[in-house]
Amino acid sequence: MAFITANWNPLGEAFYRKIELYEMGWSLRDGLKECLVAAAPYGGPIALLRQPQRPSSSARPQLEIYSSSGANMASFPWKSGPVRQLGWTVCDDLLCIQEDGTVLIYDLFGAFKRHFSMGNEVVQNQVLEAKVFHSPYGTGVAIVTGASRFTLATNIDDLKLRRLPEVPGLQGAPSCWAVLTQDRQTKVLLANRADLYILDNTSCTPVTPPGLSLQSCSIVNMAVSFSYKYLALFTDSGHLWMGSANLKDKLSEVDTKVRTPPKQMVWCRRPKSQQPSVVIMWDRLLLVAGECTDTIQYTLDEESVCVAELDGVRIVGGSRHELLQEVPSACQDIFKIASMAPGALLLEAHKEYEKSSQKADEYLREIKEQSVLGEAVRQCVEAAGYEHEPETQKTLLRAASFGKCFLSNYPPEPFVSMCRDLKVLNSVREYTVGIPLTHTQYKQMTVQVLIDRLVYRKLYPLAIEICRYLKTPEYQGVSRVLKHWACCKVQQKEEPDESIAHAVSVKLGEAAGISYSEIAARAYECGRTELAIKLLEFEPRSGEQVPLLLKMKRSQLALSKAIESGDTDLVYTVVTYLKNEMNRGDFFMTLRNQPVALSLYRQFCKHQEQDTLKDLFNQDDDHQELGNFYVKASYKEKKLEARLSLLQSAVDEYNKAKNEFAAKATEEEMKLLRFQRRLDEEMGEALLGLSLQETLHALLTSNFHKQAEQLYRDFRVPDKRYWWLKLTALAEKDDWEEMEKFAKSKKSPIGYLPFVEVCVKQHNKYEAKKYVSKVTPEQKVKAHLAIGDLEGAAEAAIERRSEGEISTVLSRCSPTTDRALLERLNRARSTAAKK
Amino acid sequence: MSAHLSYGRVNLNILREAARKELREFLDKCAGSKAIVWDEYLTGPFGLIAQYSLLKEHEVEKMFTLKGGRLPAADVKNIIFFVRPRLELMDIIAENVISEDKMHSPRDFHILFVPRRSMLCEQRLKEQGVLGSFINIDEYILDLIPYDGDLLSMESEGAFRECYLESDQTSLYHTAKGLMTLQALYGTIPQIFGKGECARHVANMMLRMKREFAGSQTQILPVFDSLLLLDRNIDLLTPLATQLTYEGLIDEVYGITNGYAKLPPEKFAAQKKQGEVGKDLPTEPKKMQLNSAEELYAEIRDKNFNAIGAALSKKAKIISAAFEERHNAKTVGEIKQFVSQLPHMQAARSSLANHTSIAELIKDITSEKNSLYSFSFHVQLTTLHSSFIYLFYLYLTRQVTSEAFFDNLTVEQEFMTGVDTDKVNTYIEDCIAQKDPLIKILRLVCMQSVCNNGLKQKILDYYKREILQTYGYEHMLTLNNLEKTGLLKPQTSTRNNYPTIRKTLKLWMEDANEQNPNDISYVYSGYAPLSIRLTQVLARPGWRSIEEVLKMLPGPHFEERQQLPAGLHKKRQQGENRTTLVFFLGGVTYAEVAALRFLSQMEDGGTEYIIATTKLINGTSWIKSLMDRPEAP
């Protein structure tokens, strides 16, 4: 414990410390000499391209991928062209940028994924230098060609190449350059000896850093901070200029007194840095230069590479992997020698308490007197997060927990979540996993991404354990990991379909929200169609199964799945697909076996393809529907002959369907149409298309009684209806004489009340009266009332001794009605009621 | 304006709010000023979710109706099409977009599919070469729309026709989806009952979707205890009968669409301000929104029409008395209190005036003195402006119609009680002879067929022939449709099982009490709707008691249970009612809704009902949806 500050070095007001993360597990004979190295930030993997031991034409370089602790993940001889630069994407894919501008993408395990080119122009001019950079848009690649032109791709997953404008006076590669992301734009900052330029999409602007004292010196190296906010420039006079990346402010300038151009230069900052610095590396020297112009010097005993992180710099060497960072203020407060900060006192108090010494109380009282116990606990919790050694973490957390006991209402969340975070962090920092994340990086990166990284490394059990431990909702946690596991599982070529399908279903059975179709899609991509189909069986969402089944040309299966889902749009989609894929006969046969699809397709045809509809009915021998089809079609025809011939087809179909009624009715319609045409031609009427009833009515009102009679007989119109018809027609044209004749022609099948009512309706009470006497006794009252004859109605009602009818008459009486009549009615009603 | 949705047993405003939220989110996705191009069919249903003001708040400046050709000019940044996923509409949209491109000012296009996006439609847009012109293609899931405090409707007119005539089960898929949305908001419904093929299909889809969504389960205490799915085709009789509740009659006579009724304007003229008297009578129909937000309407809507007069008269007295209070107000405080109540009283008074007018209108058509249907209609409306002499005049002139209404009702009741259903009915014959409206004839013939479990071939053919000869051969297709759906059918077995069903389920009650009902049969003055009887029996004593009858009705009956997450099992308080959601697949009538409300209010009922349906229907709108008219060239 006492040695915690042993590796601290002061820099201005702050301290810097260098801690060892791992002793590297790899065994590299020459260390990192003659290697092209790329190490991903956030404790990511390391890629090495090692030049062959003995240069000869047949020897090939070796590409190796290691975890941060030096555990080998992949290793294979490089068979493609010469590589200029290696780099990692945000999703842990390796980019190998070749001299000819081709960029090859490999996964963590060295499996080739895809490639793309940085443009045709590059092929001739070659890539001189290249850089991989990260921005909110993803991972990008920038190159400078032999023709001194820059080309940028901001996001390799959505490749858009941008060739930047020419830089005046630039020959070959610039002295140094960097990629900047500013104002949502990606730019290149480059130095050509003493001149500095900013290159954006449209222009090349010369710039001068404010306050650079020796203007004439060449700029030989530059570094942009992790956040793209700060810039450092190194001149051949050994001066280091630090300022903001927009070149508006200068922070400081330091004379390093080393004139050799550095091998590497990176910013070393942390959020809320007190003393940001730039780390400069030469062959044997590592120099940390702060804003305050102080420096720290470390000797390097082996070839190393610096990796900039959000909160420090990692130094990867042949045998060691170290982290250099500014000591966070919480740690400083607690561990600085003779510190009286609340956290330091609390730690001390707890130490005494463990020793069962009463001094514990003294310390505690001191803290409490200043009422900073809360602050003390907070400091201890925070500092625990910054410590790498589990023992130190534990000591700090125990102290915090101890302090918490003396506080009421202290919120438990920060303490609990810190304990959880550290547990997760310690497990991924584990040598075998090799992800040396700091707490700050972890918070920035989020659990989701960490889980993804573990999944990429195929560390499924650990990922699941972490999800369960953090109680991540299944959907985003365990299920997601299992899905990845399954996607990986289906690629194991040696295992048979059956056993993979079984293994997958057993393991995924309980997990919620698994998308089996995604797994199946992966299996299909690997050429395992049978396995894909087996896996799709587990998919509960039919909607998800269908597109893949179609892709695999299992259209029949797709159709039944679509039907199962009940989603008619999905069924339509498959049907449309089938229609285009199959010949018509097969298509119809397929539909025939799937009634749901068939009726939906019929609906579609009804609106879109009338002819197909007919074919469908034909195939099914659905004569009834065919008949209906012809009937419908007949109404679309203007010419009578065409109409009749369609109706004849309908008759034939109805006959085949054994629908006698429809056949007969259609024949009658044809007969009627012919009759109407004849009359139209002969008499100049416009009867065509009218119903039989309307035709008769028209004939009767136009005095074609003979023709009407003929129709009435030919079409066997029921007497009742014909009487009604004729009666109304006659009344409408006030042909009272004819009506009277009609009434007397024979006994009316509808009685005579209609005669009365029809006359009244035509406001002819006089004529109406003629028929009142003929009305049956039951309807007498109604008839009398209809013509407004109250007395007659009264007589009739009284005679019939019907209480209801008497009441009806009474209700029609008005104050002007004869009193005697009223009395008679009332009397009759009471007698009727008595009965 | 949506408060009435939250007063019921289940707060349906949650559903409405969820729908509004989604709409706002979509509108905000299209930044800048916008114009909406409406599939006209959707405007009605949307009106139940959001008024123009909401759209305006989100920069909707213009609204157009979708039609072919070029879009009207509008100085907006975005054009949004609100459409149903129909191919024919896609063609129109394509036409709009193509003719737009020729003009200079570019506008952003978006499509909002209601209720669901469709690959088929997108494919069509692609074929037309315009798919790429759309910046956003989204769906607005609007399945179940809150219609009233206890009523949800999908407002899907064609649902019955599609399901039972065309075997297109799209609307059932939407139903299942809608029920899933409902469960996401109100918790998993533990029990599902159902009767009928479509009900079975919907239940299957729901159970399937539940499996699909496994893992994203909602931790909501279930609001509904059970769901009852009913196929319309197990009870074809009820919608054919003339509804006799107040609301039902308004629907029968004037039609209620999307919660609005269009009424003849004459009656409402009197309510205009005094100064305007003497001007011409308004010719535009009066559009009135009818829902429980109006206190008086909520009170009387479900009463039998014969009880309306008394109810209105009572209300009138109360209002008059309230206005009289002003004479008693002596102190400043009392006057102040009186004045503060004035707006409410005035609203009540105008509401009363409106409903008196409507009731008069309907009475003109329905009532006949000296018959069973004698109305005691003496509203003392001294405080109202209605002109009674005018009303009385109208009443006399409508004598003929009302007689017809009464005769029609008599025949309906004869059929429902099983009188002479196996013979040609003379009333129907007479109506055909006089060429009464075809739909009226079809309603009666279908009713006779349903009540007789099919008609003898000879009788059926006779009716059909009469209809074709009178109304025209083109109705052949309609008749064919009616036969396909089972509304009309030839008798196949000699046994007519309708009487058994009627007796077992007590579908006819001789002594229906219209004024103070004690049974659901009051809604049809004697006939108790079969669908509601099934619901009633399910609650108590259970369907096991009527197995025989259930077997006579088409389709399977079933019961399913849905597992609830642990801890969400409801602990029922002593005397707490169960809540059942009854879903009518293929439509429900206002009278049936009234009957269910009656059951909810019964003191010893034990169950409260929330009603959901594909569409609110009546016999006329229903038959109309099944008609096919061949298009003339």
Automatic annotation (TrEMBL), chain A:
The keyword GTP-binding does not apply. One of its GO terms (molecular function) is actin binding. It is found in: Late endosome membrane; Lysosome membrane. Residues 5-416 form the Vps16 N-terminal domain. It comes from the Eukaryota. Residues 514-829 form the Vps16 C-terminal domain. Keywords: Endosome, Lysosome, Membrane, Protein transport, Transport. GO terms for biological process: endosomal transport; habituation; intracellular protein transport; regulation of myelination; regulation of neural retina development; swimming behavior; vacuole fusion, non-autophagic. It is a peripheral membrane protein. Pfam families: Vps16_C, Vps16_N. One of its GO terms (cellular component) is CORVET complex. Plays a role in vesicle-mediated protein trafficking to lysosomal compartments including the endocytic membrane transport and autophagic pathways. Believed to act as a core component of the putative HOPS and CORVET endosomal tethering complexes. Belongs to the VPS16 family. Core component of at least two putative endosomal tethering complexes, the homotypic fusion and vacuole protein sorting (HOPS) complex and the class C core vacuole/endosome tethering (CORVET) complex. Their common core is composed of the class C Vps proteins VPS11, VPS16, VPS18 and VPS33A, which in HOPS further associates with VPS39 and VPS41 and in CORVET with VPS8 and TGFBRAP1. Interacts with RAB5C. Interacts with STX17, MON1B. Associates with adapter protein complex 3 (AP-3) and clathrin:AP-3 complexes. This is Vacuolar protein sorting-associated protein 16 homolog. It comes from Oncorhynchus kisutch (Coho salmon).
Automatic annotation (TrEMBL), chain B:
It is found in: Cytoplasmic vesicle, Autophagosome; Cytoplasmic vesicle, Clathrin-coated vesicle; Early endosome; Late endosome membrane. GO terms for cellular component: autophagosome; clathrin-coated vesicle; early endosome; late endosome membrane; lysosomal membrane. GO terms for biological process: protein transport; vesicle-mediated transport. It comes from the Eukaryota. Keywords: Cytoplasmic vesicle, Endosome, Lysosome, Membrane, Protein transport, Transport. InterPro entries: Sec-1-like_dom1, Sec-1-like_dom3a, Sec1-like, Sec1-like_dom2, Sec1-like_sf, VPS33_dom3b. Its main location: cytoplasm. It is a peripheral membrane protein. Belongs to the STXBP/unc-18/SEC1 family. Plays a role in vesicle-mediated protein trafficking to lysosomal compartments including the endocytic membrane transport and autophagic pathways. Believed to act as a core component of the putative HOPS and CORVET endosomal tethering complexes which are proposed to be involved in the Rab5-to-Rab7 endosome conversion probably implicating MON1A/B, and via binding SNAREs and SNARE complexes to mediate tethering and docking events during SNARE-mediated membrane fusion. This is Vacuolar protein sorting-associated protein 33A. It comes from Oncorhynchus kisutch. The lineage of its organism: Eukaryota, Metazoa, Chordata, Craniata, Vertebrata. The gene is VPS33A.
